[in-house]
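[INFO] parsing input record for ArsA family ATPase
[DEBUG] input buffer:
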Amino acid sequence: MSPPVRGTARGRPSPAPSLGGLLASKEIVVACGPGGVGKTTTAAAAAATAAVRSGGRVLVLTVDPARRLADALGVKGIGNEAVRVPPQAFAAAGVQPKGELWAAMLDTKQSWDDLVRRHAPDARTREQILANPLYRNISARFVQSHDYIAMERLYELHAEGCYDLLVVDTPPSRNALDFLDAPARMADFFSSRLLRWLIVPYRSRLVNVASRPFYQVADRILGSQFLSDIAEFFILFQSMYDGFVTRAKAVERLLADRRTSFLVVSTLEPTPLREAETFVGALEARGLHLGALVLNKVLPPFLLDPAGAQAAEAFVRDHERLAKALAGELPGIPKAQAAQLARVLQTVGRSFSDYRLVAEREQEQRAELSRAPEVLVSVPSVDRDVVDLAGLLALGERLWPR
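[DEBUG] output buffer:
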């Protein structure tokens, strides 16, 4: 079956590589990268800017437990159900968007309940699963529950066809690898030897002689009721095995589809950059599309201006002469403080030169990285945090220059 027709405001490729062109030509953009590099904010800023400039219906979905996204968008009660960012919020930020911006945050428990209701073979099995004691703690205890259900929710939202663009904010990069592998791992788990050992005695009254000691020890340590709950849970869940496997394969196809791209966010600090490079390699190994690399908190380009370097050298070389000339001429600095002013000028010159060296190294790193993604964006450091929609749109201007 052909995919649903998307909005006419989107889906057209950009004439030149840019983040705007990437967002306009894709239906899903998955933002990923190390923690603490501004990934959540970048995802929200990209989505907000796409809604303003390209139009259509744009949804930003966060699977990061932090609630920074809702705070920045000014949306109350954000959860599994998408909430529209009101036009008044854009008006307060001084813009009139061409499209709509929606936001949602993964509710693991609700998403699992919806999954059970959708895939359970009958009403009796559905109610047994929902009432099982182990299932009621699934979001905190079940292997891969958060990562798997995030992929399930992404697939569901895309299949509904209600949005022209989905921007997904993932957990930090090492968890995001689990995010990518979760569907296959979940299917593997349901066919694992461990699971068969757990449920065999509850499917049959005949327990293998070799396995009896295991269950005797487990009964003493965990209690027979606990083992019974586990077995019941997985026996019931196995009734949905075919649905899980089918959906897992569909999710994997969606991630590899040409309509999906990945946006890796990092800084140029050594540890985050190594993690980001690891993730870039993982995307390439899986045959997934790396559309953009966003480098946050880079030093400003004026540090590379030769005129600035010459001024800094003059401050260091001629600090005493400059101080004598300036002392008494600057408000609040009498001639008697010329020596102190000289030290300040020398320190400023040396500090500028040090920052320039770091900026040159960053420029070299960007040149090396530019061969990997289609789009490379550098975002200079800012003095204040992004706390509202106006701040997100200002960041969007840096991500996607006009």
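[INFO] Residues 338-369 form the longest helix (32 residues).
[INFO] shutting down worker
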